[in-house]
Structure to design on (277 residues):
């Protein structure tokens, strides 16, 4: 398949470059293609004439988006809409990656694909706007919601928490529960999904569920870190953007695309870090 990959330098973009090796991929980093620039998107897509446009680009600075939502909407709504439009114009399918933050997190069971989104943050609203734009612009779409993504390279929670291992104690939120997702596992799942031609919305996140506290304890255990991990509440850690309290993603969609358990993702992440050290 001929694929135009955008956001190719991010955590997911880097992982996809490996999992899509069997395909003919043109990988565009931000500097090469700004997805919020419609003319540039149309030119790139018309030149490549791909079978599929796979968008791994996004604005993920959740707290910054609260004070200034403009950049989030440019990259998370206008950009995906541009890609959906340009892909439709050449008869290509499009993949939009979305987030658990489209849900309000007030439920007490995992969210499936048919649950109704109700974002509580500007970031979540911008990602939902991207979903809506893609759905209404190109019927040949896959919308893949994921969560809590991390990779050996990139800014993410496991890397940040590992960087604090020289402290005697770290305090970590224990009342936000989600689906930690290892970027290479997500990339594998998307690589399977694009072969299905079963267009629609999918939840593609690590299996199982964990709080940030659980994730930290398991990461430190695997990495042999002795730092004490103290559970705290969200209220003790006020942030500009509201986070969902419970945003575990599950899937009821067919065909079923199920990712490995989040602990297996963490094991693979630690093994890669060990190998790199
Ligand atoms: N990270 C998470 O925890 C998480 C959770 C749920 C869902 N997701 C979704 O998963 C997908 C992949 O996320 P990720 O973690 O791989 O993100 P990432 O590591 O932050 O990478 C995103 C990439 O997109 C690029 N980008 C931003 N705006 C762009 C634009 N207008 N045009 C072209 N490129 C642009 C960024 O470039 P610059 O660095 O130059 O801006 C960066 O290279 C995204 O859709 C994200 O919303 C992520």
């Amino acid at each position: 398949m001929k694929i135009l990959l955008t956001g190719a330098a991010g955590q997911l973009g880097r992982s996809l470059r490996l999992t899509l090796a069997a395909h003919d991929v043109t990988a565009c980093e931000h500097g090469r293609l700004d997805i919020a620039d419609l003319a540039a998107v149309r030119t790139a897509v018309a030149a490549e004439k791909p079978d599929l446009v796979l968008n791994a680009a996004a604005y993920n600075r959740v707290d910054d988006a609260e004070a200034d939502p403009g950049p989030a909407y440019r990259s998370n709504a206008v950009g995906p809409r541009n890609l959906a439009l340009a892909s439709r114009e050449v008869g290509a399918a499009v993949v939009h990656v979305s987030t658990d933050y489209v849900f309000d997190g007030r439920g007490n069971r995992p969210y499936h694909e048919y649950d109704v989104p109700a974002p509580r943050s500007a970031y979540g609203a911008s990602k939902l706007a991207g979903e809506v734009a893609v759905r209404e612009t190109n019927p040949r779409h896959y919308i893949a919601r994921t969560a809590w993504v991390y990779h050996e390279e990139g800014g993410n929670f496991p890397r940040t928490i590992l960087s604090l291992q020289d402290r005697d104690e770290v305090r970590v939120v224990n009342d936000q529960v989600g689906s930690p997702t290892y970027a290479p596992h997500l990339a594998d799942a998307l690589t399977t999904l694009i072969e299905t031609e079963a267009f629609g919305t999918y939840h593609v996140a690590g299996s199982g569920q964990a709080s940030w506290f659980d994730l930290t304890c398991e990461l430190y255990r695997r990495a042999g870190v002795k730092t004490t991990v103290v559970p705290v509440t969200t209220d003790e850690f006020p942030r500009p953007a509201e986070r969902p309290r419970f945003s575990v993603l599950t899937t009821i969609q067919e065909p079923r695309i199920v990712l490995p358990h989040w602990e297996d993702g963490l094991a693979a992440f630690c093994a890669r870090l060990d190998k790199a050290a």
